[in-house]
Specification:
The longest helix is centred in the middle third of the chain and has 20 residues, at 120-139. The chain has 2 domains: 13-98, Rossmann fold; 133-259, 3-Layer(aba) Sandwich (Rossmann fold), CATH 3.40.50.1980. The chain is built from 11 helices and 11 strands. The strands form 3 sheets. Strands 3-2-1-4-5 form a 5-stranded parallel sheet, with helices on both faces. A 4-stranded parallel sheet has the order 8-6-10-11, covered by helices on one side. The protein has a two-stranded antiparallel sheet with strand order 7-9. The model has no long low-confidence stretch (mean pLDDT 89). By secondary structure, it is of the alpha/beta class. Helix 1 packs across helix 5 (103-117), helix 5 runs antiparallel to helix 6 and helix 6 packs parallel to helix 11. Strand 1 (13-15), helix 1 (18-27) and strand 2 (33-37) form a beta-alpha-beta unit. The protein has helices at residues 18-27, 49-52, 62-68, 81-89, 103-117, 120-139, 162-169, 188-194, 211-214, 219-224, 245-259; strands at residues 13-15, 33-37, 57-58, 72-76, 94-97, 146-149, 155-157, 173-174, 183-185, 198-201, 230-232. This is Cobalamin ABC transporter substrate-binding protein. Residues 12-261 form the Fe/B12 periplasmic-binding domain. It comes from Blastochloris tepida. InterPro entries: ABC_Transporter_SBP, ABC_transptr_periplasmic_BD, Vit_B12_bind_prot. Pfam families: Peripla_BP_2.
Length: 261
């Protein structure tokens, strides 16, 4: 993939995608960051939400990006087509990042972002931290258990996802692979019939506060999966592929050790 031509070794950038927000916040100098997507400040999804509060929050429209006159815009492959097309038509250098579906994808994206931002040393340090976490995880002996990543309304992460790769690093199996390739909604009955060894949840406190969370608090799941059969990993550590994966792997390893006792 060709890199867009940008001005200077440390270009001033705008990010209009939450996952590229994370890369920019981790790698760029503060004076390089002109603006971030609206989701950058969301504490449930953004690993660097507190830091993101120091920068302008954008709605995602192309016009506000043009006003900032960035040297480079970072976007996701699925960021609004109209916005990306408009920026390209105006001659704004645009770098698009796909969804990271593995730790290897995350490494490549961190390295690419480092090159685009002129921050190769920081990128390599972030990759080294992830590699060290992987080495620690692979050195530990964990029981081969099936784990179902389950979210609101019964959404399950499928087999071809970053979640699967993280679990496999620990020697665990993603039970969601039996339901979908990348993800999908699964009825409670199918979960009960399949009966994986454990659930992987993004929140420790599960309450039926609305229809979306009602399934997670269902008595059938409560009976089959008491706290000792649940793994908790905040969504902000896995929703994107970035430097936060080092912490995600370490936390998942600690949970796997607890689960296997």
């Amino acid at each position: 993939m060709c890199a867009p031509a940008v001005a200077g070794p440390h270009p001033r950038v705008v990010s209009i995608n939450m996952c590229t927000d994370q890369l920019v916040l981790a790698l760029a100098d503060p004076d390089q960051i002109l603006g971030l997507s609206a989701y950058a400040r969301d504490p449930l999804l953004s690993f660097a939400a507190a830091e993101a509060a120091n920068y302008p929050s954008l709605s995602g429209g192309a016009e506000e990006v043009l006003v900032l006159q960035p040297d480079l815009v970072l976007a996701g492959r699925y960021t609004r087509t109209v916005t990306r097309g408009f920026l390209k038509a105006k001659g704004i250098p645009l770098a698009e990042f796909d969804v990271a579906r593995s730790i290897a994808d995350a490494r490549m994206q961190i390295r690419r972002a480092g090159e685009l931002l002129g921050q190769q040393a920081r990128a390599e340090a972030a990759i080294a931290a992830i590699d060290a976490a992987v080495a620690r995880a692979e050195a530990a002996a964990h029981r081969r258990l099936s784990v179902l990543p389950l979210q609101r309304r019964g959404w399950v992460a499928g087999g071809r996802t970053l979640t699967t790769d993280l679990l496999e690093t620990l020697g665990l199996a993603n039970a969601g692979a039996a339901f979908a390739a990348t993800g999908g909604f699964v009825p409670l009955e199918r979960i009960v019939v399949q009966r994986p060894d454990a659930l992987l949840l993004t929140r420790e406190a599960v309450e039926a506060e609305d229809q979306g969370s009602a399934l997670l608090a269902h008595p059938a799941l409560a009976a089959l999966y008491p706290p000792e059969r649940r793994i908790y990993l905040p969504e902000r550590l896995t929703v994107c592929g970035g430097p936060m994966l080092a912490e995600a792997i370490d936390r998942l390893a600690a949970e796997a050790e607890r689960l296997g006792r």
